[in-house]
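Notes from hallway chat w/ T.B., transcribed later so I don't forget. T.B. wanted the structure written out for a chain they're using in a teaching module, and asked if we could keep both sequence and structure tokens in one place. Agreed to drop them here.
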Amino acid sequence: MALGGRLDAPPPPVDRDGSSGALGRRQESPAPCSSPSLADDSRLRPTASGGDSSSPSRKGRPSIPMRSAASSGVPPATHPSAPPRASMAAPPPLPAPPLLRRTAAGSGPRRRLAHHARWHRGFPTVVLLTTVWPFGHTVKQYSPDGKLLPVLGSPGKAGSSLSPLQFDQPAEIFIHSSGEIYIVDGDGGLNNRLIKLSPDLQVLWMHGERGPGLAQLYIPHSVAVDGYQRVWVADRGNKRIQVFNSVTGDWLGSWGSCFKDDAPYSVRFTPDQKYIVVAQLNTNQIALLEAPPIGIIGQCQVISTIELAEDVKPHLVDLDLKSSDLYVAEIGAGQAQRFVPLSV
């Protein structure tokens, strides 16, 4: 399979006030609508063959190619007990990702991609929606027919309690196929927390210390879990991605060198678990990163990017687990765009 391919030129964007696969070519005008890790990539330098993206200016990044154990001093997760680690097999070699093409904006994502909403195929009987300012601070659960189920948090009241569970502007949720729920709580509010809940909504472990240090968070904005028991958090305020063990909550590493220009706002894995799709709001781009196999987190490497028009502001991304379609929620343009893999 190859990378790249021309994106259909969309109509010009609307003016608006402020506030798996490889990705397609740069859009000329879309439609309206570091902390050290176990292998600190920030100390690496690019090599003649590409190497690590430790100096990720736009000019230095690859334009869409045509082919293609926690260290001492790390704050531990807060949890009642640490379940045993499970054994994991090494993954197969990475294949080249397929092309994507852009479809018309507003064509209707098959999964909810509204601001802070998630409906995951791995947990198909419930839709979860996070609510923020000014009367939110909750995670609401809905059945597919729209029935409101138990609400997590105190509606309209910000808080940091774990019993009963409270939030302050929860940013995003990720539901694992096991039914376990991961919440990043702190879209600019009092909290800066990563919380793991059991399927029956009991707190299993948490990281909640604000700061730039290892396992500390500042405006955690997105969370995803891969197939190798690793939790990936877009630590927006610190301009990095941090990685934790999904079973114990132990810190595994961090990536910062790919985010010198702009912070990661949203993080998702392609269905084959080979690539990480990251939205970067202020630079108006979607980056495709190579996901490391089992073992050491290693080095951050940008494979390709979609560069969007100015002021589009991609905020959240998600992928269809069957078709690999990519959906991008753009708060600047007030729309969602859909990118579809191309067959070669």
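Follow-up for T.B.: The chain has a mean pLDDT of 74. Might be a good example for the class.
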